[in-house]
Design a protein that fits this description.
The structure holds three protein chains of three kinds. In chain A, 75% of the residues lie in helices and 0% in strands. Chain A has twelve helices and no strands. Chain A is globular, with a radius of gyration of 24 Å. Chain A is mainly alpha-helical. In chain B, 76% of the residues lie in helices and 0% in strands. Chain B is globular, with a radius of gyration of 24 Å. In chain B, helix 3 packs across helix 14 and helix 12 packs antiparallel against helix 14. Chain B starts with a helix and ends in a 7-residue tail after the last helix. Chain B contains 14 helices and no strands. In chain C, strands 1, 7, 8, 9, 10, 11, 12, 16, 17, 18 and 19 form an eleven-stranded mixed sheet that branches. A three-stranded antiparallel sheet of chain C has the order 4-6-5. The two termini of chain C are 28 Å apart. Classes of the chains: A mainly alpha, B mainly alpha, C alpha+beta.
Amino acid sequence: MLTFTLRRLLLAVPTLLFISLVIFLLLEASPGDPLGDVPLTVPPEVKERMREALGLGQAWYIRYALWLKQFFWVEPLYWFDGVFGTAFSDGMQRIISFQSRSPVFDVIAQRLPQTLTVVGMSYLVGVLIAIPIGIISAYRQYSWFDQLGTFVSMVGFSMPTFFTGVVMIIVFAVNLQWFPSVYDTTHRVTDWDSFMVQVRQMVMPVTVLALYNAAQISRFMRASMLDNLGQDYVRTARAKGLSERVVVLKHVLRNSLIPVVTVIALGLPTVFGGAIITEQVFKVNGLGQLLISAIHANDIPMVLTLTFLFAILIVLFTLIADILYGVLDPRIRYD
Amino acid sequence: MTDTERQQALNTAELVDETAASAGLTGTLPPDTPQVAGGETRSQWRDVWRQFRSHRGAMIALALFILTILFVSVGPWLWTIDPTYVDIRARNSGFSAAHPLGTDQLGRDLLARLMAGGRVSIAVGLTAMVIAILLGSLIGVLSGYFRRLDAPLMRMTELFLALPLLPLLLLMVTLFREPLSKNFGPATGIFLLIVTAIGATSWMQAARIVRGEVLGLKEREFILAAKSIGTPPHRMILRHILPNVLSPIMVAATLGIATAIITESALSFLGLGFPPDFPTWGRLLFDAVDQMVLYPWRVILPGLFISLTVLCVNYIGDGLRDAMDPRIRGR
Amino acid sequence: MKLRTLLMGAAAGVAFAPAAFAERGADGQVNIIYWQAPSTMNPYLSSGTKDVEASSLVLEGLAGFTETGEVIPRLAAEIPSLENGGISEDLKTVTWKLKEGLKWSDGTPVTSADAKFTAEYCLHPEGGCAQAARYEGIESIETPDDLTVVINFREPRPNPFTAFTGAQSPVLQKAQFEACLGPAASTCTEQNFNPIGTGPFRVTSFRTNDVVSLEANTEYRDPAKPRFATVTLKGGGDAAAAARSVLETGEYDYAWNLQLAPDVLAGMEAAGRGKLVVAFGTLVERIEMNLTDPSSSLPEGERSTTQHPHPILSDERVRRALSMAIDRSLLTEIGYGEAGRPTCNYVPAPEIFASDNTDCLEQDIEGAKALLEEAGWTVGAGGIREKDGARLSLLFQTSVNAVRQDFQALIKQWWSEIGVETELKTVDPSVFFGGDAGSPDTFQKFYADVEMYANNFDGTDPEPYLAQLTCEKIPGPDTQWQGENVNRYCNEEYDALIVELGRTGEIEQRAEIAKELNDMLTRESMTIVPLVDRGRVSAHSNRLGGVILNTWDSELWNASDWYRVTE
């Protein structure tokens, strides 16, 4: 397993480099212009000069090489300087966003906490309610609990968050006035009261997202449990006189987790990617909102850096999923 | 009993059961005894149907689904108002005889729009889902089953997962919108483009899930047994692997329809989808969100249809899965 | 009786008292929501409205505009004019005098050197300054003393109020930005996010594309202002959500630019927590006619170029018929309500420049049909007109926007009534308005027969705006499709009049020429078909007073006068 992991990690480096090149070329080729937002009143000559100031006058391979250097050399150096107080990165150009002319990593660091608290929390809540629901619905297939669970989760999944989010705002923020409709990203938790404010502003986005995640995961959990409950080893285990709890929670659950682990592992990187629509609806302004506004503004350095970080997480989490398969099912071996 | 011992006992029990089960299954394989094969296959499908019929939820869902299909396909023949006809005097009208479901802010008939929109949405949802699932299952099975293909295919999946969706779609639309609409007409051209775009960007999850399942299945005893009697890979996959990964595929498929319908609306919203005079359910829903408080029906109706379709497909999938599982069938 | 009047007078006095005796920062916190979040506080690096307006809370120019378009002094002591000698007789020199005793928010004095530096900063060839056009034509700037700025133009400048006037070209502090000239502009994150200004507020924390927190500037020239101690300017979400947070939940005090369906806005306003404010500027939603052939059967590089005139739209009668079939009042009512006015003018304001052109306001379907018959287009199969075997079929493109899609549907219907077939197309705004020469979907490339969008001009002088339609500004492959004359309109007479306009200094004469130019484009040739004069709609809560919406300057132009209304 260790050699497998090491080999995969080594292989990840060229994969990621290739991915970064593909993303860069994709962004280059796709239509759109970093100056699309500039009002029509600005004359074309001025736009041309602005474009040059952004470094867009150079050939694409030079800009790609520059980005690689900045990402793998300047930014780590800068970070190193920050930690140890050295000055290796002085005078080096960091990755600069087209929109705000500020270092991309500073903005990402600013956004990360919101996304992690809101989207991360909703994912956690989603998983925590989805797994028990999946287990119970499968164990008591076609009971009222199962029927209700199916109904709620399918409706929850087929309703887009741009709809559920607005419904929640109208009901709970406008009519009942229980929760704020605008998320305050500058809020700091210092005591119990400010903690409650934080909780109140998180309730709606977390609920909307958790519902969506839970719907998906619980369906996979249920289906997989059903597959395994009909297996003969379950009958054998029961015949041996194992308690029902042990049979279901130990044998069946463990064998049913593979597709669920896949779904969760693929979902975790999206936590870092943020939830584009939900963040927009509740004005959370996390990484999802950052990515979408950067895409709209054709802010190539920002989009490239964000999607590349995202790619690293995807590669990492698929590896973790592969390792987990081996843990869950010792028969799976990669070497 | 220690854990290892128990596992061992379980494994033995499984081995016995699985071999017996798959032996029974191979016994019904048609090519071995051609004379009986025809009769047996037919009765197998009849079996599936009988089992399916006994699944109440699935039958209701099937009936509703057929009704929905009829509504969107035959409906426009009975209710002949043009969904894009603007009757400005009748705008924002409620339920009436002339407009049973009311009209929108330009006086376009909502019933006609729901019918026309459903046709597009269901077609897009089903086709895109089929593309995504076929692609996903194919890649998943291949990379799970053939060790040699695993690494390249999975790296490709990672690449697709990492690509930012929006610029990719923008690029696809820019490159292909004009040639496609020139060759197939604007509606069909855009349909093909959207279906391929959604299909090509949503197969990855299915592929990962199927691969995970196949990795586990591959080491099971009945597969070893089938291998030992010399089953060739293609039959192995079709006969032994695929039926056993059917349920996650089913789930992915039902969820896929919902995602495809919603994605289509998001695409139209971004100007990448159908031209604005083609109503779709997702688009109707999206356009009405701002007016939710004033005209709640405009949001509720398309939302209801989307949910209904997804629920139906889900229950039909459940029923099919149960009906095709030989262990449940005949119980 | 007398006593009663006195008492009432006293009561009224008390009611108005907060405005008169208030001290700085007495009214606490004000919350502003912009659904597009500001990404920088330096308007020279981004000309997006959101950035310019956010920075106007901190930075100021020498002069600004009022809600009627009149120029008023800000840092300047008075507005230079021919009468007071501030503008020279040959229109080539402008002399500005600064107010005395002005201080930056860090306590240092404001001097003429700061203004001179600002012009250098923006005119630096490698800086990529977004407002460079406002400083164009400046030969030199002299600073004879600390309070005097003398601007020398290369050529006579009838309208000198571009540089240092309005929110787009404020004065920067030399000491702060000295190290940020040219290519260094983008390394100055700290400066760009926290500029030192002379405005009523100063930045305490700036989170790009998210929130700006500000506090009252203790050095502000009026000791009683601003009334608010702190400001939060939040960004993100969409227009509907922003409107809701002011009009329905009351979490915010001011919401910017709410382009929403009129009935939706009216429904929100009915909640009674806030009011909508509307003001009109020069923004006109229009249909542009392509005078060249965009057909995809032409080789790339020849589509939509002057080599091939448009097979249908080159005929003025067809263009006129298309315009006659449109009911502008209905479009306005459905799309903009109170925030729009039907118009036939390319230049709808200021009043002195607006032509009396109202012929197009009446819809005339029959007249349009007759005109098409006269042009030789006769009704053929399926009710679509034909001529010489060609169908009267048009591709109509616009950007993605709910109101524009409604307009498309309505116009398509009217055109079908006169026998014109219309294919609709929508393009993502960032692609449509982005000048990517590689994309076929930009509005400059115009690979469609007609297109719809809105445009306006900066400030109160329409000359540069009218000059966009000269022959030399036709976009084409040789200019990387840059050029503002998207219609490919070319008329020598028009070009000659533009030259004349550039030479004319007298305002009445300028207005006459501008009106003539406007009519040539609209009434006479129907090259540009104006639809709606679009106002700006914003909302403020009932608890916020002093809001005056201004379309000539920043919307937040008088934020120093805003106050809290207590019931």
